[in-house]
Design goal:
Length: about 120
C-alpha cells in the first residue's frame, strides 16, 4: 500500500522532498495554501484527504486529539539535524508496507527506534 501523508507545518521541507524521492505520497499544508491552523482543523483536513498526519507536535499523541483522526498519526519526537533528514525519510519510507491507515494508529519515531501502536 502506498502511504499517504499530510505533513504538518513543522515538518522540514527537505524531509518531504526525500520522502517523495522514496515514493511516499506526501502533501504539505503549505502546498494547499494553509498556514497557522488549529490541531482540530489539521485533523479535519487529514480526514477529508484520507491521509495520515505527519507531525512533530506532541499534541497529536494525546488520545482526545488522536481519536479525531481517521487514518492515524506519525509523530517525530525529535528535531532531526540536517545530516539526519535523509535517514529519517528512509526510516519512514521503509515502514510504508507495514502500516495500515486506521483510527487510533500512532507511530512514534524516536531517535533510535520506532514504536507502532494500533
Amino acid at each position: 500500500m502506498l502511504l499517504k501523508l499530510l505533513a504538518d507545518e513543522n515538518i522540514p521541507k527537505k524531509l518531504v522532498t526525500f520522502l517523495r524521492q522514496y515514493g511516499v505520497d506526501v502533501t504539505r499544508l503549505q502546498d494547499l495554501g494553509i498556514r497557522g491552523i488549529s490541531d482540530r482543523e489539521l485533523a479535519n483536513i487529514a480526514n477529508e484527504l484520507e491521509r495520515i498526519v505527519l507531525t512533530r507536535d506532541a499534541d497529536f499523541t494525546v488520545p482526545s486529539l488522536l481519536s479525531l483522526i481517521r487514518y492515524g498519526v506519525i509523530y517525530i519526537s525529535y528535531q532531526p539535524s540536517k545530516n539526519e533528514i535523509q535517514r529519517l525519510a528512509e526510516r519512514i519510507a521503509s515502514m510504508a508496507n507495514q502500516l495500515e491507515p486506521k483510527p487510533g494508529l500512532l507511530v512514534i519515531i524516536e531517535h533510535e527506534y520506532i514504536e507502532i501502536y494500533d
